[in-house]
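hey all, quick one before standup. I had two proteins in the batch that finished overnight and I want to keep them in one place so we stop losing track of which output belongs to which input. First protein below, input sequence then structure tokens straight from the run.
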Amino acid sequence: MTIGTITIGEQTGYNPNLPLFADKLEFAGDGEYPDDGTTGIEASVASALGKSGINLIACIKCGGSPTYRPEIVMTPGSLSDTTTYPCDDQDGLTFKFKVDGGSEQTVTISGATTTATAIASAINSGLTGASSFVVDSQVYVRSDSHGPNSSIEYTGGTNGCTFATGVNSGTTAKKLRMLKTADGADAQSGAGTTDLSGHKVEAVFLYQ
């Protein structure tokens, strides 16, 4: 068995006029990783290195006991509701979203649904290209993509929940995100469900 032809989808960080550095750094694990990543990682790495204006490209795990894989990602488009839960039963009602500027998607609730967890689960089941979860008793919807072309837009529906309308876009701001190595799922989704406090995290950071 042989693999198919390898083609380049995207090359990141190459510049013939700039050197590429690879430094191994250590830091204490956090017990409250915010959803989808820790912000300010580029500035934190630059400060630790005594440098300014670095372009952080990637990080690679090289030690530490928890089963995780770090990666550098840009901010995804996301939004949250302001509904007070438990809410009225949303059975048979709809939520409408656009993901990354695509066509409108309609999620129809089936069955008794009055909690934030049940709403998020229903949205997860019916929405393509995005995921829904609960943080501090509120429903969040987040694009699976990252960066300025990533976006989530709530466009209405017959539901009785409260989501702000308008496009919520991602940014080029970089975050450090931890993923489970077993299945690639978010290890710090929700309200910091992965507790790395007390663990030493070692990673090689690639930057220019």
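OK second protein, same deal, sequence then tokens:
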Amino acid sequence: MSTAAELPTFEAADYKSDLKPVWCAGCGDFGALASLHRAMAKLQLEPWNTVVVSGIGCSSRLPGYVSTFGFNGVHGRALTLASGIKLARPELSVIAVGGDGDGIAIGGNHFLHAARRNLDIAYFMMDNEIYGLTKGQAAPTTPSGDKTKSTYWGNPEPSVDPCELAISFALLTGLFAMIYKLLPATRIAWGDVWIGAAVTALLFWLGKILIALYIAHAAVGSNLGAAGAIVVLVAWVYYSSQVFFFGAEFTREYALRHGSRQAEAPPQA
């Protein structure tokens, strides 16, 4: 009587590669790497069915220190690589890693769209609030007022909180999805609703950031006096309403052209 071969039990040390990390002494990336090894052992991920991908930066050297398949890509494109691998080989365990500059600056749009698509990908962002590999320039997560190599007088911009960004984007998407699903008289499938809600949430979030930057850098109060606050409020209300109506129309058109209501779409001339 034949029995199936039993798979070995993996320990954290089994996921370590022969390469020695070249990070600076005391860098938090060492702790992130050790935590990843322990997490993979707890999940008993098969090394031959696991892929770790990254972009560019100090933390993006991590795939070389894990005994799995790995790929070191270009700056800001770790999530695009991970998405492509997961779509082509859905049976694989796909892990994307990178820093805050890699994931929130040049890769910020991919971060939002990866959240929107919600693929089965694990993304680890090592946020040290600075561009470490290029010797200390201000990053999107650098706190406002911090002095860096590129901001001698202090960082003039408000910082981005990656966790707050992800949570707020998810909450906004859920809110718009409920509105677009429940309010219209016609029935729209949830798959179509989530697409429209994610697009609306993205535009809403971008508007919030732009309004915040305008208030931070424009002397609204000096130019318009007490009316400055009212002008900004009216502009925000107008923008929000336009985004809301655009999202509703986008959801309808998407459902008619690509989604669950294609059969109801009018014939094209």
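Flagging for whoever picks this up: The two ends are 68 Å apart (CA to CA). The beta strands are 50-54, 69-72, 93-99, 121-126.
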